[in-house]
Amino acid sequence: MSKNKSSELSQRLSEIIVHGMQEKKANEIVRLDLRELHSSVSDYFVICHADSNIQVNAIAKSVEEEVYKAFGQEPQYKEGQANGEWLILDFVDVVVHIFKTEKRAHYGIEELWGDAEIQHFQSA
């Protein structure tokens, strides 16, 4: 698959992920475009936060359902469902970070990847 085609697919995947987050009223949804960063592990990070562990898990479930409906794809890797404070869904080209509100600032993912282009999305 060409780099361009792969990039288009990862962008579409990131849009589906944002939609899944919006469905569950995620807070401060951002997409970091990592494609131009040479040390990047994926094309995009999509990040949001929620006020409770229950909402963190509901957002993750919504993202997984939307991605599966669109692409028939499950996350390659999942971490954090037990504590619901920072949940990661790794779809290889797009990595999803869902934080409980107070944990997002603590870990500062956006600051760590400060060179990335950032796009903000509204909740639905």
List the helices and strands and how they pair.
Blueprint: H1 3-23, E1 27-33, E2 44-50, H2 53-71, E3 77-79, E4 86-90, E5 94-100, H3 101-107, H4 109-112, E6 117-121
Parallel strand pairs: 2-5
Antiparallel strand pairs: 1-2, 1-6, 3-4, 4-5
Helix pairs in contact: 1-2
Structural features, described:
It holds the Pfam family RsfS. Strands 3-4-5-2-1-6 form a six-stranded mixed β-sheet. 33% of the residues are buried. With 124 residues, it is α+β, with helices and mostly antiparallel strands. It is globular, with a radius of gyration of 13 Å. The chain has a single domain (1-121), classed as 2-Layer Sandwich (Beta Polymerase, domain 2), CATH 3.30.460. Helix 1 (3-23) crosses helix 2 (53-71). The model has no long low-confidence stretch (mean pLDDT 91). The protein is built from four helices and six strands, in the order H-E-E-H-E-E-E-H-H-E. The protein has helices at 3-23, 53-71, 101-107, 109-112, and strands at residues 27-33, 44-50, 77-79, 86-90, 94-100, 117-121. A hairpin with a 3-residue loop joins strand 4 (86-90) and strand 5.
